[in-house]
Amino acid sequence: MTQFIHVQLTTTALWQPPHRSIGNACLIGEGGSSVENTIFWLTRPDGAQYNMITAGSELKEAVDMHFKQRNSQNVLCIAPSRNAFRVTGETPRPIPNGTVRNFYLPASPVQSIESVILYTGGTYYDLPAGGWTYTPTQVAGQYTGGFALNQIPPRGSRLFVDYNVDPIPGALKASMSYDVQLIALCNNTTLTELQQLADHCDLAFRSTRFRMGTAMLPEGQTLVGEYRDWPNQLSSDNMMLIAHNSGDDVAAAWNGMLSGTRVHDDPILSNVIIDRNNDFSDNDVIQFDNSQVVALGKQYSNELGTRAFESYTLSPVSSRRYIDTVRTYQDIIWRLISTLDSPNVIGKVSYTKAGMSLLKSYIRAAYQTPIDIGEIVGLRGIEIPIERIIRTPWGSRNSVQQLQLQAAKANRILENISVTYEQHAYPHHFYISLEVL
Q1: Residue 96: cis peptide before it, omega within 30 degrees of 0
Q2: Alpha carbon distances (Å) from 148 to 95, 152, 162
Q3: pLDDT value at 301 more than 60
Q4: DSSP 210-250
Q5: Ranges 2-6, 363-367, 391-395: which has the least confidence
Q6: Is 231 or 15 the better-scoring residue by pLDDT?
Q7: Is the pLDDT of residue 425 over 90?
Q8: Residue 98 in 3-state DSSP?
Q9: Among 181, 168, 242, 187, which residue's Cα sits nearest to residue 63?
Q10: End-to-end alpha-carbon separation of the chain, Å?
């Protein structure tokens, strides 16, 4: 006898799990006319796109240094022109809502607006067209990145803008939407542009696009004169500054080495494959060490190759001054955010004892893989402040506690959740605020 079982599935809580690599790199530099203003991935130093990069260009040499390192991973190549980087199809802000006609572009500084396309009423208009025009906003002859339409576009309209920005800011902005964790400017030792890299990495961190930037001093340069203040000028949890004695693109080589290194491994143990022409004095190394600069040189004997004497970041915070600590910290935060961002969590957590226990179980699940692979030692504590009120019997809550719980339910926000984990025998902790939809 045949029996049939009816199974009904709901897809309301299905979602695409976020993905993040741990070693993809990004190189920004000129690569010749064939790849100008293009963005492409390379998995090895070979193939049609690799061959299109001009031999001897800063991008070509950086790519070669990246893949010269042991176990180096994929690299995103961004090749702006010398004078500008073209951004195409950008959606300006704000979204047309039927009340505004002034818009602005998110990148700066804007050099020129090349075209504005308006989609409205089922028709695309390449302005000026169809009675629509636009006027770029200028101050003292310089574009501000803003522009105004001659009339208010209807609600539901869309705008697409092609424009030129300065090459480094434009390329950094373009990298934001890609899965990269290490980024460098090819053969670049210009402080102002390296500061733009540092600002970009901090902005990316705040946008949960976690990555670290690598800057390098000129070949053989020590911390004297104008370079004495470079560590302060580039100070960031997400930046590294390399001192070296090589004519190679050491920033690209360093990122190539890191790309093949697990986030919780100390890169001080890894060989950086570069041509070293000299070595720093002991006094120079001490000065680098005091300023949290990564100095590359000979350790004990040439047989060990070129290695870092210390693996510092330029963080002003002592607990985040080592590269493996920050890379692990970034990876842990991403794992936690990607877990809590699931509709199974933010869409279903209730303000009850069972709900708080369920939330803690999701947080523990986010840490399980890092514990299994040895990335961290263990999870040491989870504290949800509102949970203490929830677990207090209703009749025992005072008026202040009742108001706090009512406000949390009304705002749907769980504030100041404290998570503590242990890495390399010392604890780290951070606070998160979770908006429950």
Answers
A1: no
A2: 13, 9, 15
A3: no
A4: --EEEEEPPTT--S-GGGGGHHHHT-BTTEEEEE---SS-H
A5: 2-6
A6: 231
A7: no
A8: coil
A9: 187
A10: 48
Burial, 193: exposed, middle or buried (Cβ in 10 Å; 0-12, 13-18, 19+)? middle
Residue 43 to residue 17: CA distance in whole angstroms: 24
Q: In this predicted model, which residue has the larger pLDDT, 180 or 405?
A: 180
- Beta strands 25-28 and 75-79 are parallel
Task: Provide the 8-state DSSP code for 77.
Answer: E
* 25-83+169-320 CATH pick, 3.30.70, 1.20.120, 3.40.50, 3.40.600: 3.40.50
Domain boundaries along the sequence of the chain:
25-83+169-320, 85-165, 341-435
Question: Which tokens hold the place of 386?
Answer: 């509102």
Q: Could you give the dihedral angle defined by the CA atoms of residues 26, 31, 35 and 41, in that order, rounded to the nearest 10 degrees?
A: -20
Amino acid, res. 274:
I
Instruction: Give the amino acid at 254.
Output: W
pLDDT in tens, 87-143: 888 889 898 989 999 998 877 678 888 999 999 999 999 999 999 999 998 887 778
Instruction: Tell me the two tokens of residue 137.
Output: 């906003």
Sign of CA dihedral 47, 53, 59, 62: positive
Structure tokens at 86: 């073209």
Reported as half-sphere exposure (CB side, CA atoms, 13 A), residue 170 has a value of 27
174: which 2 tokens?
Answer: 């373009």
Least confident range of 99-108, 174-183, 243-252: 99-108
Tokens found for residue 410: 């009304």
